[in-house]
Design goal:
Structural class: mainly alpha
Strand content: under 5%
Shape: flat
Number of helices: 14
Radius of gyration: 48 Å
Strand order of the largest sheet: 2-1-3-4
Largest sheet: 4 strands, parallel
Distance between the termini: 77 Å
Helix content: 55-70%
Order of helices and strands: HHHHHHHHHHEHEHEHEH
Length: 436
């Protein structure tokens, strides 16, 4: 249908409708009765019958009331006849109405719960989302509370949905054409492969025939040379047998070499992958060691250039209380001196070797940061200090080694991070909350 079967509604107010759309007194008296198919607008019959009844059902029903042959009539003729029966009313329209009511009784019961047009539209929208359109369309069109706006909205959405279905069919046709082209290519490929197989079969048959001919020639030669001694024949046969066995041995040798080469290639591939992983780990470790060496070198140069001055490279520890768990006695003494020179305090605990672990639990809550080298600390102490730090909200961080370089590089990173944060912070406000 090219155009809607009724004038588009401009407003939902009852007074704005045309006079022909005003409900009559009879309509008000029968407002609680569902509309029959013949009572609907004649332009709606096409969409109702085409959407809600299948061609098979119409072929069984329409010939009972018309002269059409159900076996030879086209689908279009059956559809037109059904629409004419619905428009004319009478027994044909009643039979169509009965078929619709029986088929969609469940949807009709579900839509009976609607008491106003908005509830009808809500049920219709749910049916659109679920794709169960034919039952909802008939239940809505025949509902006693279905206004002209509601039917117009449902008809318009069904009309646009038919366009979408047509577009989808066109896309399916394009895909079908592409699949047929692909099928043709595959068929041609199979034909080429079969032709190649036939050629190979012919070559094999020719080879067999040649072998048979060669055998026959050998037999004829043997017949002609019957006077040759049996020893010479046996020698020739033995020579041919040895030649065949030699070919089989060479084939087995090449096969074993190929398998060995494949095994070596797989092994070398695994070794290459392992070496790449080790190379990546070594490169990462090299970067860390380079960073530690650079930080240690900067701290050493600052100490040589300005003896007795605070070390700017590790300014972060100034005024901070750092707890260092684990490590080695010699490097711990150097770390204490570095932190003291920078204006901080370093508390060293060996993790429970000589110092009591109770002292460690007591020192952690008052620390600004807790550091521990992962190569010089036992697992029990590391687990305990993590639990205590998380309980008291104290930051902790592992160090790669117990070397001075690892400690200096970590503190230098904290110093650089603190400087960047301070540099990006906005200037303090001059406004005073007390004096204005």
């Amino acid at each position: 249908m090219q155009t809607p079967p009724f004038q588009l509604a401009r407003t939902s107010a009852l007074g704005a409708r045309d006079a022909c759309c005003q409900p009559t007194e009879a309509d008000l008296r029968t407002s609680r009765r569902r509309a029959r198919l013949a009572e609907l607008d004649s332009h709606l019959h096409c969409s109702v019958i085409g959407t809600c009844l299948s061609t098979g059902e119409l072929r069984k029903l329409v010939p009972k009331f018309t002269d059409l042959d159900r076996h030879h009539a086209s689908d279009l003729e059956i559809h037109h006849a059904a629409v004419e029966l619905a428009i004319a009313g009478g027994a044909g329209a009643k039979a169509l109405n009965k078929a619709l009511d029986e088929r969609y009784a469940g949807a009709i019961r579900r839509f009976d719960a609607a008491r106003d047009p908005q509830a009808l539209l809500d049920l219709w929208n749910e049916a659109l989302k679920s794709g169960d359109i034919p039952p909802a369309y008939w239940a809505l069109m025949s509902h006693p509370h279905a206004s002209i706006e509601v039917r117009q909205s449902a008809f318009g959405e069904l009309h646009m949905l038919s366009h979408l279905v047509g577009a989808a069919n066109r896309a399916d046709i394009r895909r079908l054409v592409a699949l047929e082209s692909q099928n043709q290519e595959l068929r041609e490929k199979i034909e080429r492969q079969q032709a190649r197989l036939l050629e190979l079969s012919a070559e094999r048959d020719a080879s067999v025939r040649q072998s048979n001919e060669h055998a026959l020639q050998l037999a004829a030669l043997g017949q002609r040379k019957a006077d040759r001694s049996a020893t010479d024949i046996e020698t020739e046969v033995e020579r041919l047998r040895e030649k065949v066995e030699d070919g089989e041995r060479r084939l087995a040798l090449h096969t074993s070499r190929r398998e060995a080469a494949e095994q070596r290639a797989l092994s070398e591939e695994e070794q290459t992958r392992a070496l790449r992983n080790k190379l990546g780990e070594a490169q990462a470790l090299l970067k860390v060691v380079q960073a530690e060496c650079a930080a240690l070198e900067r701290a050493t140069l600052e100490a040589d250039d300005q003896p007795g001055a605070r070390r700017r490279g590790i300014d972060w520890v100034s005024g901070k209380r750092v707890v260092y768990v684990g490590g080695r006695p010699n490097s711990n003494a150097v770390l204490k001196a570095l932190v003291a020179t920078a204006g901080g305090e370093l508390i060293v605990h060996d993790g429970g070797i000589e110092d009591r672990k109770g002292l460690l639990a007591a020192a952690l809550p008052n620390a600004d940061v807790v550091l521990f080298p992962v190569d010089c600390i036992d697992h029990d102490s590391m687990s305990m200090l993590k639990r205590v730090c998380e309980r008291h909200g104290v930051e902790y961080s592992p160090l790669r080694t117990a070397s001075v370089a690892s400690f200096v590089e970590f503190v230098a990173r904290l110093t650089a991070s603190a400087q960047n944060t301070h540099a990006s912070a906005p200037p303090p406000s001059a406004f005073c909350l007390r004096h204005g």
